[in-house]
Specification:
2 domains; 22 helices
């Protein structure tokens, strides 16, 4: 943050003492232990277990790691591929491509496989987020490493972060945020605008690759924070004096980021298979106002039965702070404000104002209370048609609130330790307040379950005997977000250097939604519609000569050579009926042959 009562914002603290080194070690150890605790359900068997509530996104990120590493090591384009969604391909620049992770961890992916690499990154993301925030806060709270540690651990394991630990490698990369914040504030230092601008530009490029939506939110939050801070009477002169240097640094950062991101940005906004908006409904993905006082599912309070169903799904509990924490945050703000000098009040006003702005924006275009839409129009409704903004989910704007609260808690603890209340009762009240607010939010491990094994037909490389090099095969049902087997199989083949096979459809965001907006996967065709109906209902659809003709036309449009049905099919959201799938495929394509542990149909030529 811009100022501290003990440390200049632009100068590093003094060399750490032995006591501070011990505090640093304790925070690092706690951060790693909590990360391992949250992800512990996967560590017993990374290849055999999956995150229960979001196995589809886990399969997607495993595929992204395998594909990205393969593309980089084989000189292919890591931002556009025709390995999925043949023949059109997928623009990964408008998806979450995590290219930096894929490149950095490519050796590990080849060594231990995509599922284990996914788990390593997820665990490191959580721990690194705590450590990065601790590094930032400890630079400004030299009096209390304990305060910096507690604030950082709260931010890293806040309800929103634990919720997104359900398979979101992008949103759990919260370590990027304090690095970006620090890089922005460094720009105002005399003589540092050039080097600082280069560093910030490089960080922006990395952040765009890992979490473009998070980068956008961080930029918005910094803009709101700096505007409020600069307009405060105590900081106007300082802000006006630093503005020319700051703008020069931003210009350098924009130039560096623009050069590094020229091709990804072109693909994103003008490349093939682009779209506007998102494949998710922004009305559904708006935060319920009551959710701010509710408790998340994967917390001690949630385990005790105090959880609610106010989120659109378990990965989007973006606020869920609980009423005690909201009350504690208000109490901390009031107590700090009363004792603060004008400069610190500017920082507090910026913290509080930013938190309120993003809380209100996260409610979306219409207010919702306890699951019921009130019809009250809200400020986000004026913004949701703007470019870039229309690709963001409003509920995720609530993720900005957690760091504001975490910094506020750290400031309050630092102040209480430096000048404790004189009355013992007041000290006890503060201790009780922190315990009542934070203990119920302690995270519990993510829910995991056994995943369906990848068939021997894939692991043994038998598929190469039935598909030509760079040919197309499809599992049944076709690969989508709710049936991600095809991308899991493909990820295995790529990571184990078996070669490439392509698949129709896939789990991705692409064009084809209403009004030119995006959608998840491609628009449905006859063959995949029939197979989806059979898998979901357990009933064989009525098959006519017309449906056979259209299904064969679909398979030939995709260039499919082999249709494959394993003995057990993974449905990410519901169970699928393998028997109905086999009978339907047989009615369309004739009798299958048994190859290893799958049923296989060869698609006859036209």
């Amino acid at each position: 943050m811009p100022t501290s009562p003990t440390v200049d914002a632009d100068q590093p603290t003094a060399a750490p003492t032995g006591r501070n080194r011990r505090a640093d070690l304790v925070v690092a150890l706690v951060a790693l232990l909590l990360a391992g605790w949250v992800t512990s359900g996967l560590w017993s068997d990374p290849n055999g277990r999956a995150i229960t509530v979001n196995s589809s996104d886990q399969a997607l990120f495993e595929w992204l790691l395998a594909f990205g590493g393969h593309a980089i090591t084989h000189g292919e384009n890591p931002l556009f591929t025709t390995l999925i969604n043949v023949p059109d391909g997928v623009n990964l620049a408008v998806n979450t491509s995590v290219t930096v992770y894929a490149a950095v961890f490519a050796p590990l992916t080849y060594l231990i496989g995509p599922p284990a690499t996914f788990l390593v990154i997820l665990t490191l993301n959580l721990a690194a987020t705590a450590l990065a925030w601790y590094w930032l806060l400890s630079r400004h709270l030299d009096r209390s490493r304990f305060a910096a540690g507690l604030g950082a651990l709260f931010i890293a394991y806040s309800p929103g972060m634990v919720s997104h630990a359900n398979a979101h490698l992008n949103w759990t990369a919260g370590w990027l945020v304090p690095l970006l914040v620090h890089a922005v504030f460094v720009l105002r230092r005399p003589g540092r605008w050039l080097r600082g601008g280069i560093v910030l530009g490089a960080l922006v490029a990395v952040a765009f690759s890992i979490a473009a939506e998070g980068l956008f939110f961080t930029a918005l939050a910094l803009g709101v924070f700096l505007t409020i801070w600069s307009l405060h009477p105590a900081r106007r002169a300082e802000a006006r004096s630093a503005l020319p240097t700051f703008l020069r640094g931003l210009g350098v950062a924009a130039l560096v980021a623009g050069v590094l991101l020229a091709y990804p940005l072109w693909l994103h906004f003008a490349g093939p298979q682009r779209f506007h908006g998102t494949g998710f409904d922004p009305v559904i993905h708006a935060e319920d106002i009551a959710a701010f006082g509710a408790y998340p599912q994967r917390s001690l309070a949630g385990e005790a039965g105090l959880r609610t169903s106010l989120a659109p799904n378990p990965t989007e509990e973006n606020s869920f702070f609980g009423l005690p924490l909201l009350l504690l945050a208000v109490a901390c703000f009031v107590a700090l404000w009363r004792r603060a000098d004008p400069g610190r009040r500017a920082t507090l006003a910026a913290l509080g104002g930013t938190a309120m702005v993003f809380a209100v924006l996260s409610w979306g275009s219409q207010a919702k209370w306890n699951g019921r839409h009130t019809g009250q129009l809200l400020p986000f409704g004026l913004l949701d048609d703007l470019p870039v903004v229309n690709a963001a989910l409003p509920s995720r704007l609530a993720l900005v609130v957690a760091p504001m609260i975490g910094v506020l808690l750290a400031y309050a603890i630092d102040r209480l330790r430096a000048a404790p209340p004189r009355r013992r009762g007041a000290r006890a009240a503060w201790a009780l307040g922190f315990a009542a607010a934070l203990l119920p939010l302690l995270p519990v491990p993510l829910l995991t379950s056994t995943r369906e094994p990848i068939p021997e037909f894939i692991t043994a490389g038998t598929w190469r005997e039935h598909v030509s090099p760079d040919g197309v095969l499809t599992p049944l049902p076709l690969t989508l977000d709710v049936t991600p087997d095809g991308q899991r199989w493909q990820a295995y083949a790529l990571a184990h250097r078996q070669g490439e096979f392509r698949i129709p459809a896939g789990f991705f965001l692409g064009p084809g939604g209403p009004d030119g907006r995006g959608r998840i996967g491609p628009p449905p065709r006859t063959f995949d519609t029939l197979m989806d109906q059979a898998g979901r209902t357990g009933l064989v659809p009525i098959i006519t000569e017309g449906s056979v003709r259209l299904s064969l036309a679909d398979l030939r449009y995709w260039g499919v050579e082999a249709v494959v049905l394993p003995d057990r099919v993974h449905g990410a959201k519901y169970d699928l009926d393998e028997n109905a799938l086999r009978r339907t495929a047989t009615a369309l394509l004739g009798q299958p042959q048994r190859v290893d542990d799958v049923w296989l149909w060869k698609v006859p030529p036209a």
